[in-house]
Amino acid sequence: MYEMGREESKAVEKVILSKQLFRYRGGEGGECDRFESALCKKIGAKHSILVSGGTGALICGLVGIDIGPGDEVIVPAYTFMASPLSVVALGAVPVIAEVDESLLIDPADVEKKITRRTKAIMPVHMTGLPANMNALKKIARKHNLKIIEDACQAVGGSYKGRRLATIGDVGAFSFNQFKIIGCGEGGAVVTSQRSVFEKALIQHDGGCFSREHVLSTPIFCGWSYRVCELQGAIMRVQLRRLDRILANLRARKRAMFAELAGSDRYAMSPVNCTKGDCGVVTAIKFESEALMRAAQKALHVRGIPSGSPIDSGIHVYSRWSPILQKRASSHPGRDAYKLTGQRYRYSKTMCPRTTAILSSTLTFGTSYSESVAENRRRVAKARKIIERM
Ligand SMILES: *Cc1c(COP(=O)(O)O)cnc(C)c1O
Q: Which residue ranges form the domains of the chain, and what is each CATH number?
């Protein structure tokens, strides 16, 4: 969330004074409905559902593409733990694939991890960087797999002219506090396939059976990931801010990238689609973790903030304890790892290439509150310090 202010508070006040906070009032055209239409129009999707969070959006999306016990879904080793958690929530097993230098899922490793049980691939557009969708789509077509895009961190981003979350069969956004636009907690499922949408809709609101007449999908017992009109009202304002937010982020990143490029001390981490990148971080890669740490320390001493993806806690697979320990559920009868005849082995060292790439990478976050020139100057100083090391 980069911007939030008077417009959102006015929109919330209007909903409160209307005393109409529940979104399904027996009519159409409320805040949530209007947000969903606007989101679809903005990104070019046929259907969307505003839900309570990004994890809920992933779960509803996975329901939409029929994921369940016995299925495997391939996820990257570098993503927020919610990506694999959404898979085990449905009794399926996340299979962890390496990331490549772009810090995103490596299509070559995805192909190696495919088995008879693989049902879907979940590319994650981490930090707003677009995954290599062309390569992934080719693999999905060849092996008859579904694609669910985790675009939680990449609202508005695109890949070769198409918006992220609309390239695969279904996509998920998060609107929590830390994402590009947000309302505290929230998310959205997007798809252009009617049957995927209907299944996700039923999953998102078990009370949906009352609208059975508008559904062609046979009804089943859903859960609740519903939101109220307050979130819808905030998100409508946030969506109007999206273009400007992305333009600001991208202008800053372009300047930072240009300033950092061309050094012989490190390489620029490759970006799969520069134009579609949201511009949240600029990453550089050293030849070793030792060099990355030395650079980080030198920058820290001079007061220049930087980070490394290896230090991002539960965004790194080796920190996914409940997954690595295969504790998929509080109840053994619902445990994904017990619902399959298959033995799965995880370890903290199972994706050594990911660990090596993440630990030799240094990132500079885009500072939204600082000007393009200030962002440029900060990394220019960083480059000088690194080159004097
Ligand atoms: C934030 C995030 C999620 C989960 O979103 P919540 O809204 O926190 O449930 C899932 N995947 C990724 C990559 C995320 O960054």
A: 6-240 (3.40.640.10), 242-312+353-388 (3.90.1150.10)
